[in-house]
Design brief:
The complex is a heterodimer. Chain A is α+β, with helices and mostly antiparallel strands. Chain A has 2 domains: 131 residues, Ubiquitin-like (UB roll) (Roll); 134 residues, Alpha-helical ferredoxin (Fumarate Reductase Iron-sulfur Protein, Chain B, domain 2). Helices cover 32% and strands 13% of the residues of chain A. In chain A, strands 2-1-5-3-4 form a 5-stranded mixed sheet. A two-stranded antiparallel sheet of chain A has the order 6-7. In chain A, strand 3 and strand 4 form a beta hairpin. In chain A, helix 6 packs across helix 9 and helix 7 crosses helix 9. Chain A is elongated, with a radius of gyration of 23 Å. By secondary structure, chain B is mainly alpha-helical. Chain B has one domain: 3 helical TM bundles of succinate and fumarate reductases. Chain B is 64% helix and 0% strand. Chain B contains 7 helices and no strands. In chain B, helix 1 crosses helix 6, helix 3 runs antiparallel to helix 4 and helix 4 crosses helix 6. Chain B is globular, with a radius of gyration of 22 Å. The chains are: A alpha+beta, B mainly alpha. The interface between A and B is large, with 48 and 45 residues. The complex binds protoporphyrin IX containing FE, iron/sulfur cluster (2 copies) and FE2/S2 (inorganic) cluster. The site of protoporphyrin IX containing FE has 26 residues of chain B, from helix 1, helix 3, helix 4 and helix 6.
């Protein structure tokens, strides 16, 4: 990256054109398909005021030429909402998992002036480049029945009222976008553990507190107290620190520790 | 809401003993192993107590324990050795399911997560060596055998035998105490006692204070054995040291 002054914002203040343009070096871990190996490619992208990682990837797609002048393919990645709500663009940026759309280049360069590295998340199968398959997370959600079970086609009428206090507890948990940050940072979530991960545990807490979804509470607790459930958490508390939605995951984890203990004792000693 | 009679039944409990094993792992770390560690270090610290004869207080503590007579070995096996073996085996198994990553996510809690694993391994090898040396084989690799009849002197001789014994013991003690202290903190989450960040933080302060005190007790005891005999003249006619009085240490 060339050192230009921070006034440069695309308005061409000194009119010297490209030679004076501030460039950002970006290293990307690329992988052609789910079965191929991976390799690094470097790019230089002209800096734009307010640019985020999605912008960087768009600029590379428009001109997919590496730093050493090799023609290459545009980088595959996922994105949708562009406002940190859908979780699709989650990737490992400068060794830390986060969303690309809310990662501002300006802030990234403050911590790492040498440049930016982009990698796919390591806990999921790579489809191509930065695009991963987050299926393991959705499988976990299925295991703990992360839904409100409504049987039949007829009109059930209005649901039970939920108090303001309950709502305030449930709302933060409901913000989860299954982005994968928490499981990426979790030391206990990996290929040699069956752990369902913090997001699913927190969703189980959310649905167990819901007056209608409660009917499946014991099913959820059975899964949570089984192999791959709550006992696989090692209390490193990374999950709560990396969650972009600030979801109180460790509260959910401790709550589940308490609930499963009571549930199991009830099972062992009969109600 | 569900209709009467067709509400969902809890699925059959998983056929494995996963939950039980993990909860027993947690429990065994607290009692008996954790409780034993604290009592053990407290007994050792009695070497620092001033008595008529050096090491007299410590000898009294050892005599109390050995008062169990022939029951001592079974008690040691059932309440210390087997729980420790169980905790260690499950502990190594738990370690295999994790991938430490404090390099990328250097939060305090994540560093403690890694340290919990490393100190477990250190404690394991240290305890193996410690028991092997003091209980059975004595000197071959430094140290010496503990003799309950001459508690203070034999322990001091073991600690003073070679220069590296005291540092190894210091590392072993600090690692074990850290492991216990951090383990108490995580066990409060495991069992769902501390749920909110505020209560977890408060528990953190209590555990840290407890840990520092226990570590100081342990290191103080170690220092007591290291210096034993260095600045005291052991009286020749000491009854506790009978037969050993001519063999001074240091
Ligand atoms: C000095 C003797 C030891 C004491 C007092 C002790 C105590 C404890 C305690 C209280 C816990 C907390 C359990 C929980 O979070 O619920 C724990 C966890 C743990 N211990 Fe030990 N332990 C000892 C030796 C060992 C040894 C020899 C190993 C072998 C590697 C080991 C491995 C572990 C592991 C891996 C954990 C983490 C468990 C988890 O995250 O679920 N410990 N220990
Ligand atoms: S809990 Fe947070 S980090 Fe985890 S998937 Fe949901 S939003 Fe992402
Ligand atoms: S607290 Fe538990 S779930 Fe959260 S990151 Fe640590 S091990 Fe994973
Ligand atoms: S595109 Fe939706 S979170 Fe980034």
């Amino acid at each position: 990256m060339s050192t230009n002054d921070h006034h440069h914002d695309g308005h061409g203040g000194n009119g010297h054109g490209h030679s004076n343009e501030r460039m950002v070096s970006v290293r990307v871990l690329r992988q052609e398909n789910p079965h191929s190996g991976s390799h690094w490619e470097s790019f230089e992208v002209p800096y734009e005021h307010g640019m985020n990682i999605t912008t960087v990837l768009l600029r590379i797609a428009a001109n997919p030429v590496t730093t050493d002048h090799h023609e290459t393919t545009p980088i595959a990645y996922d994105s949708c909402c562009l406002e940190e709500v859908c979780g699709a663009c989650t990737m490992v940026i400068n060794d830390r998992v986060r969303q690309g759309c809310s990662a501002l280049v300006e802030n990234l360069l403050k911590d790492s002036p040498e440049g930016i590295t982009l990698q796919p998340m390591t806990k999921f199968p790579v489809v191509r480049d930065l695009l991963v398959n987050r299926k393991p997370m959705f499988e976990s959600l299925k295991k703990i029945k992360a839904w409100v079970h409504v049987d039949g086609y007829y009109d059930l009428g209005g649901g039970p009222r939920i108090s303001q206090k309950e709502q305030e507890k449930a709302y933060p948990l409901s913000c989860c976008m299954t982005c994968g940050c928490c499981v990426e940072a979790c030391p206990q979530f990996n290929d040699h553990s069956a752990f369902i991960g913090p997001a699913a545990i927190s969703q189980a807490v959310l649905f167990n507190a819901h007056p209608t979804a409660k009917v499946d509470r014991d099913d959820r607790l059975a899964v949570l107290s089984g192999a791959g459930g709550i006992t696989d958490c090692g209390n490193s508390q990374n999950c709560v620190k990396v969650c972009p939605k600030g979801i109180p995951l460790t509260d959910s984890i401790a709550q589940t520790g308490r609930d499963t203990t009571i549930y199991k004792f009830r099972q062992w000693f009969g109600r | 809401m569900s209709e009467p009679g067709i509400e969902s039944k809890p699925s059959a409990p998983p056929a494995d003993y996963h939950f039980l094993v993990k909860r027993l792992h947690s429990l065994s770390g607290l009692v008996p192993i954790g409780a034993f560690l604290v009592i053990h270090l407290l007994t050792n610290a009695r070497i620092l107590a001033p008595g008529l004869v050096p090491g007299e207080e410590f000898q009294k503590g050892v005599d109390q324990i050995h008062g169990l007579g022939p029951m001592l070995l079974p008690v040691e096996i059932v309440f210390i050795f087997l729980p420790l073996l169980f905790h260690s085996l499950v502990g190594f198994q738990i370690m295999r399911t994790g991938k430490n990553n404090p390099r990328y996510y250097h939060y305090n809690s994540n560093i403690r997560y890694s340290l919990q694993r490393w100190t477990g391994v250190i404690a394991f090898f240290f305890i193996m060596y410690h028991v092997w040396q003091m209980h059975w084989f004595g000197e071959p690799i430094g140290g010496g055998k503990f003799d309950p009849e001459h508690a203070a002197l034999s322990a001091a001789k073991a600690i003073q035998s070679v220069w590296w014994i005291a540092p190894i013991y210091a590392i072993g003690v600090v690692a074990s105490v850290f492991h216990l202290t951090n383990g108490i903190w995580t066990s409060l989450i495991t069992w769902g006692v501390t749920i909110k960040p505020r209560s977890q933080r408060a528990a953190g302060y209590v555990c840290a204070t407890f840990g520092v005190i226990v570590a100081l007790i342990g290191l103080g005891a170690l220092n007591g054995f290291k210096r034993f005999g260095a600045d005291t003249v052991i009286p020749k006619s000491s009854h506790t040291m009978a037969g050993e009085s001519d063999r001074n240490v240091g």
